[in-house]
Fold this protein.
Amino acid sequence: MDFQTACIHGSEKKYDVTGAVSVPIFQSATFAHPGVGESTGYDYSRQQNPTREHLELTLARLENGTDAMAFSSGMAALTMLMELFSPGDHIIASDDLYGGSHRLFFHLSVKNGLKFSLVNTSDTGLIEAAVTPKTKAVFIETPTNPMMQVTDIAAVSRLARKHNLLVIADNTFLTPYLQRPLELGADIVMHSGTKYLGGHNDTLAGFLVVRDSGLSKRLRFLYKTTGACLSPFDSWLLIRSIKTLPVRVERQQENALEIARWLVGQAKIKAVHYPGLESHPQYEISRRQASGFGAMISFEADSEITAKRILERVRIIQYAESLGGVESLITYPMLQTHADVPEAEREAKGVNNRLLRLSVGLESRDDLLDDLNQAINI
Ligand SMILES: *Cc1c(COP(=O)(O)O)cnc(C)c1O
């Protein structure tokens, strides 16, 4: 089954006898048992619910995994994933991370005895140099948020196998439509389903997807124990959204490439970070491991004043956190997603008072360019 078809017919499992084309919303917390010691396959919705199951089967298929778990948010997924590790375990992570992941690692996980090393994971040598006898996993985000650094997933996976490490890939920015880390050797894919998978800036969701059955068993045990599961209604919204994932992402990235090229030519814009520009340092790796470049762009204005003016002057593009939806959004990472990252660390990565991040939506490309033009070039 092709990817596009799988988005629409993600699971052949039938849940009702009416012939409903849309998967029903099973708004039930619990399920009656046919007899003592018997089960319909559904017992209690924290563990499994038919609507959520349909979504999970779909996502497992899209990522080419064997099991997917749907969570109430991306952070809920990652928080539970940290339960796989024990005090003393060491994790190597990308040094440019979604701010919430950074906050989880350095405020909560360290309290539980985990240790982290942040390195530029686009340089595999730096990962290898950071491996210790206690290292258990490499956590990569690719492209990274917000600097759009790209990590060679296959190379990291080869290295990880040599040292017996798990590779966890946050695939939020590219979605399985453009990049499938499990096929490249990663062990666990994580998503903020709030972004492209949800796609409409209206629902929070998160996912973990795996291929290995032992890992799936361990995670399923944590899943039913911790309980941050996605509700039946929100599962249904995600099922609905994923049906249009390929067409949305395709058009969004077309818009993004045009906008990135236009930004490069603006006198008040000093740098544009987009993996689809040939000048991007990992342009070749991006082409090799993904079938597209996505629709996230970050760029640096010539001054703090210009950056703030752009945020205040945009009219169609909205100044708001989040990304991946049909509405274009612009954010100020320094004050929003990355406010809790220490200043020196943030500045060193280029997340400064001039950096803006743009999530390109589905509005007309001309309207978006006009909007940016009037905001940047008064
Ligand atoms: C938004 C985001 C998250 C967190 O997901 P939520 O659904 O907001 O909890 C994690 N990683 C990346 C790359 C994100 O963009």
Observations:
- The CA atoms of residues 127 and 361 lie 34 Å apart.
- The two ends are 50 Å apart (CA to CA).
- The longest strand covers residues 135-141.
